[in-house]
Design goal:
Blueprint: E1 12-13, H1 24-27, E2 30-33, E3 36-37, H2 38-54, H3 68-71, H4 80-86, H5 88-94, H6 104-119, H7 122-130, H8 133-139, E4 145-146, E5 150-151, E6 154-155, E7 158-159, H9 165-174, E8 204-208, E9 213-214, H10 230-241, E10 253-254, H11 298-302, H12 306-309, H13 311-317, E11 344-353, H14 364-369, E12 374-375, E13 379-386, E14 389-394, H15 401-405, E15 409-415, E16 422-427, E17 432-437, E18 440-444, E19 451-455, E20 460-466, H16 470-483, E21 491-496, E22 501-506, H17 512-518, H18 521-532, H19 538-547, E23 551-558, E24 561-564, E25 594-600, E26 606-608, E27 614-616, E28 620-628, E29 635-643, E30 646-650, H20 670-690, E31 694-697, E32 701-706, H21 725-732, H22 740-743, H23 748-753, H24 758-764, E33 766-771, E34 776-780, H25 784-819, H26 850-853, H27 856-860, E35 867-875, E36 882-889, E37 892-897, E38 905-906, E39 912-913, E40 918-921, H28 922-926, E41 943-944, E42 950-951, E43 959-964, E44 996-1001, H29 1005-1025, H30 1027-1035
Parallel strand pairs: 2-28, 8-22, 9-10, 21-25
Antiparallel strand pairs: 1-27, 2-5, 3-4, 6-7, 11-12, 11-13, 11-20, 13-14, 14-15, 16-17, 17-20, 18-19, 21-22, 23-24, 23-25, 26-27, 28-29, 28-34, 29-30, 30-31, 31-38, 32-33, 33-34, 35-36, 35-44, 36-37, 37-39, 40-43, 41-42, 43-44
Helix pairs in contact: 4-6, 5-6, 21-25
Length: 1042
């Protein structure tokens, strides 16, 4: 059947038009081209019939229910008219309507429009005709094709994959995992966070006080002056904001906190009780967003009394929690395991130095310059923290000894109370931390029920710990840092690089539990937003983007590395009250990270052209084709799909085609259906990538043309075309010529049987890809109309992705220049004039390109391909590196071997599972290489790549390794579905189980850091999706009883 879609064109908008919404649900679309095989339709029908018979609540096959008023059949509660009426408001919102405009007239209009769309839908007629058994039997023949092109996710004329502003607000209120702070939050900050003054200089500093200061004469429930000073306070605040002084601070009267009984809170041995400073903090109620009442305006909040403000504070502080701050010595018995979940499995690298003169902060830089270290290989241990020591357990070398003793073998003990025990962050990229301590042995006296520690020998032991979960590593680092005496500073700075402004927030001394409650993600973002509104550039640089859909998020940044604050709960579902403040434990690094509030960018979906217009990303495409071999004329049935600028080729058996329009289930809730559809599309795309037999980069396509010879050519002589975006768009935007012969082609074998010259018709149904390697690849489609649609849509995709990669390469070069001077000086148009030298590298520069490099697509999983690119990879420590196209999808790494003269890069069969995988990089990875493969004193050679990237990074800064256990890919998405079979103890790898190793090299340090971050984020999501399995993994093996 002919497609009802108009010929596609390249979407270009002017600079005056608003840009598309930054989230991918609004801009990323997919098109299925051509009809579907009858076999696929029959399998889809059988699948839904099976679900209907097995489910007590009958699921809806909407398109098979006809209109009762037209045919006289009882349609029941699932009649399509009832479905539309029940969800008319949701359709209205998805169409761009506003809730305040909803009424009876709008409801009637939307129902009529939806019914009209449904009756005129091509696939609706198909499902209606298939209800007739005689027609269905005649149509269901081998080789029969059904339907035409359609937009994936379109339901009753509405694209359910799109997310409107109203539906986003509803979803954000219901979501507790990724809470957002909107623009209105800046106006809804309670009196616990007073407004702050601003001053504009070369760099703006904004001071914000977080607590309420204890004044003389304050009562137990607060200072009565606070309630009566709202008017004058607001007036004074307005004057101070507009003051021309360089810096002005606002000091508010602070009521005293009511005392909490000592039995209800945990003491903190780290923070000194007699330290001077400002009063304690007041926190917001820890209730879910959907349960909170509408926040009062600032004027109403400022009029409240101290007793009202602090009522929730006392209740919240009374909650007992040993997971906050430093562990309490008064509440823990000797031998208690502090970290929740008993213990953690960690990959540990151990070193020994005879000299005890090591610097206290042992990190990657010091490791590179330290000599005479006796090292041991990587090994996985069970690491348990018991109040005054950390114990490392491994398997016994003698079989059966663990069964006889009843516990694992204690290999090492780290005394936390020793004066030489020091904690440091080893690598910010991998979140590996290091503990140095004197060698210690444990022993037990027969008359006493506890262990004792004593020094074994002189020297220093060095332990470098790597956890699978990055958030779990941060939790370990934070709690150990607090236990070993880490104290909170009096001020924390939050920087906004967009407006070059810093917000200084006071941290008054007090109970770390209360401080952590106030310094949560939402509170800090709301405070910064309310304070930064006084900056003149806020409206144009921040607020405008937020109105277009972007959000502000917190991130700890070190140089060109970002670590977003995005997880409010730990791997067990408990609250991480130190999620924001945990970055303070990383201050021990040579260049400490800084806390920033940045716009959370998703991967961009448009390009700015030289003339100021925007080139929008075209819809991705997929469908069935046949490849024609040039020499043998053999036909190979294939399924092609594009993802992120790559053309994937699959066999029809592993095509994972989309569900035909009309087969839906659980339509009682349209929003739930839309959310499930988005997740299923991400999963389906990931399965296509993992089961693809080949891939080709769209940048390697020179020309896409209609076949002009009956016999396909094997090679071509076309040269590269002009890559200027404007010229390129004007050429490729021209529609493919259509003839009356094309419109008269019915398609398939039926169309061939009606023509005399079958070879000519097959040629007209074919299109060719002319590659940069000189090869010509021909594909034949179902009909001439389908061939022209493939040509036009592929041209638009090739145009966009060539320009997209050029923009990405330029941003990467700009980021690389921020780390070191430019290797090749810029060519000047006028050579005689004198130009100032290039500025020195500034690691504190705003670097807006970091948002794209560390995009929120990786965290939220809104794309099928989490990360992709070309890398040099080898399996194991020996052998040669191979150039591969590597893709990270659904917790697996998929490799495609790149050969110089290959037309399609073939898939490497084995997939690398990231479950139970560890990732490390830099010098730690280079030290694991065999002797002779790495020289620490080797000079870094400058390199220039084809896209213009110039780097001179050392070898170890482009290297990362992955230790993993081989596992086959599963049909379920391991992140979206938690499989019960994954939690079986038999599937858990032993501590001493043999691991495989993948060694990867990138082009630059920037690429390596981005890959490590994406891999660690994907492992984090795997750990949280398989909680039962991870719990059993931590509980496998007994510890020595205390």
């Amino acid at each position: 059947m002919p497609s009802q879609h108009s010929p596609p064109s390249i979407a270009v908008s002017s600079a005056d038009e608003p840009p598309p919404h930054p989230r991918h649900y609004d801009t990323h679309r997919r098109m299925f081209i051509g009809p579907m095989p009858e076999k696929v339709i029959a399998q889809a029908e059988a699948h839904f019939t099976k679900q209907q018979s097995s489910n007590s609540q009958s699921q809806l096959q909407l398109e098979l229910s006809d209109h009762s008023h037209s045919e006289g059949h009882g349609s029941g509660e699932h009649d399509i008219d009832e479905i539309i009426k029940r969800n008319a408001f949701t359709f209205f919102i998805h169409e761009g309507g506003r809730p305040e405009d909803w009424g009876e007239d709008e409801e009637r209009n939307i129902v009529e429009e939806m019914v009209k769309r449904w009756r005129g839908n091509e696939w609706a007629n198909i499902w209606r005709s298939r209800r007739n058994k005689k027609t269905a039997i005649a149509a269901r023949q081998a080789g029969h094709w059904v339907g035409g092109s359609f937009e994936i996710g379109r339901f009753l004329g509405v694209n359910m994959l799109q997310e409107t502003e109203a539906s986003r607000d509803i979803a954000s209120m219901a979501s507790g995992s990724a809470r957002r702070v909107s623009l209105g939050a800046a106006n809804r900050v309670s009196s616990d966070w007073p407004r702050a003054s601003t001053s504009i200089d070369q760099e703006t500093f904004v001071s914000a006080s977080t607590g309420l200061q204890n004044g003389n004469g304050a009562s137990e429930h607060g200072d009565s002056r606070f309630a009566s000073s709202s008017t004058s306070l607001l007036h004074t605040l307005h004057q101070r904001i507009n003051s021309p002084k360089a810096r002005t601070e606002i000091t508010l009267p602070r009521p005293a906190l009511s005392e909490v009984p000592p039995s209800k809170i945990q003491s903190d041995d780290v923070v000194a009780a007699g330290r001077k400073g400002k009063g304690r903090l007041v926190h917001y109620a820890d209730r879910p967003l959907e349960e909170q009442e509408e926040t009062a305006p600032p004027t109403e909040v400022l009029e409240r009394t101290g007793q009202e403000t602090l009522q929730d504070m006392s209740a919240g502080a009374a909650v007992e929690s040993t997971d906050l701050g430093s562990p309490s010595s008064s509440s823990l018995d000797w031998g208690d395991v502090i970290m929740k979940g008993r213990a953690d499995r960690m990959l540990v690298r151990t070193y020994y130095s005879k000299s005890d003169s090591l610097k206290p902060h042992f990190d990657e830089h010091q490791h590179r310059t330290t000599q005479n270290l006796l090292e041991a290989d990587w090994a996985e241990y069970i690491v348990a923290w018991r109040k005054d020591r950390v114990e490392l357990y491994t398997d016994y070398s003698l079989p059966g000894k663990e069964w006889f003793t009843g516990h694992k073998h204690m290999a090492f003990v780290i005394p936390l109370g020793a004066s030489k025990t020091q904690l440091s962050l080893y690598s910010f990229v991998d979140l590996t931390f290091c503990i140095i301590c004197p060698p210690t042995k444990h022993f037990r006296e027969e008359a006493k029920p506890r262990f004792f520690l004593r020094s074994a020998k002189e020297g220093i032991n060095i332990f470098i710990f790597k956890l699978k979960s990055r958030s779990r590593a941060v939790d370990w680092l934070w709690l150990l840092w607090r236990q070993l005496g880490g104290t909170l500073p009096s001020i924390i700075e939050v920087r906004n690089p967009r407006v070059n402004t810093r917000v200084k927030i006071d941290i008054p001394p007090g109970d770390s539990d209360r401080i952590s409650r106030v310094f949560n993600r939402e509170n800090v973002i709301a405070l910064c937003m309310s304070t930064l509104k006084s900056v003149p550039d806020w409206k144009y640089l921040i607020e405008r983007d937020m109105k277009e859909g972007k959000t502000l998020e917190l991130a700890w940044r070190r140089d060109t590395n970002l670590d977003w604050v995005w997880l409010d709960d730990d791997v067990d579902g408990c609250e991480r009250r130190w999620a924001v403040l945990c970055g303070l434990a990383m201050k021990q690094f040579s260049r400490p990270p800084t806390l920033e509030i940045r716009l959370a960018d998703h991967y961009p979906t448009h390009i700015l052209l030289k003339n100021g217009n925007r080139l929008h990303e075209p819809p991705a495409i997929e469908g069935y084709v046949e490849r024609i071999r040039p020499n043998s004329q053999m036909r190979q049935a294939l399924y092609m799909a594009t993802h992120d600028g790559n053309l994937f080729v699959m066999t029809p058996h592993h095509a994972f085609p989309p569900t035909p329009p009309g087969l839906v289930k659980n339509i009682e809730d349209v929003e739930a259906f839309a959310d499930a559809l988005r997740k299923s599309e991400v999963h389906r795309g990931a399965m296509q990538v993992m089961h693809a037999i080949g891939v080709n980069d769209l940048r390697s396509i020179l020309v896409i043309r209609r076949a002009s010879h009956p016999v396909p050519e094997s090679m071509h002589r076309e040269g590269p075309t002009n890559q200027d975006a404007d010229i390129y768009a004007s050429i490729w935007a021209q529609p493919e010529e259509r003839t009356p012969e094309d419109n008269g082609d019915e398609g398939g074998e039926e169309g061939l049987n009606k023509t005399v010259d079958k070879a000519h018709l097959r040629m007209r149904r074919s299109f060719e890809l002319l590659l940069t390697t000189g090869h010509v690849v021909r594909f034949e489609t179902h009909s001439c109309r389908v061939a022209t649609e493939w040509i036009e849509r592929l041209r638009a995709l090739v145009l966009y992705w060539k320009q997209r990669h050029r923009v990405d390469a330029k941003e990467e070069m700009d980021l690389a220049q921020s780390r070191r001077p430019r290797l090749t000086p810029l060519a000047r148009v006028i050579q005689d004039e004198e130009y100032p030298p290039d500025p020195p590298p500034d690691m504190g520069a705003p670097m807006p390109a970091l948002g794209s490099l560390y995009s929120w697509c990786v965290l939220e999983g809104c794309k099928s391909i989490v990360k992709g690119g070309k890398l040099f990879v080898r399996k194991g420590l020996w052998g040669h590196f191979k150039l591969v196209q590597l893709f990270l999808t659904a917790g697996y790494l998929t490799q495609f071997r790149i050969k110089p003269k290959s037309s399609i890069h073939r898939s490497m069969r084995r997939k690398t599972s990231l479950a139970d995988a560890y990732v490390c990089s830099g010098y730690l990875a280079a030290a694991a290489l065999p002797k002779g493969q790495y020289r620490a004193d080797a000079s870094a050679d400058p390199r220039r790549y084809q896209d213009g990237l110039e780097t001179n990074d050392p070898d170890e800064e482009m290297l990362f390794m992955i230790w993993y256990h081989p596992q086959g890919p599963k049909s379920e998405h391991p992140i979206h579905t938690e499989s019960t079979t994954a939690a079986k103890t038999s599937a858990l790898p032993p501590l001493t189980g043999k691991r495989k190793l993948l060694v990867c090299r990138t082009r630059s340090r920037l690429e390596r850091d981005a890959w490590c971050w994406a891999l660690n984020c994907e492992i984090e999501k795997l750990v949280r999706a398989q909680k039962e399995r991870e719990a059993k993994l931590r509980d496998t093996g007994n510890l020595i009883p205390s």
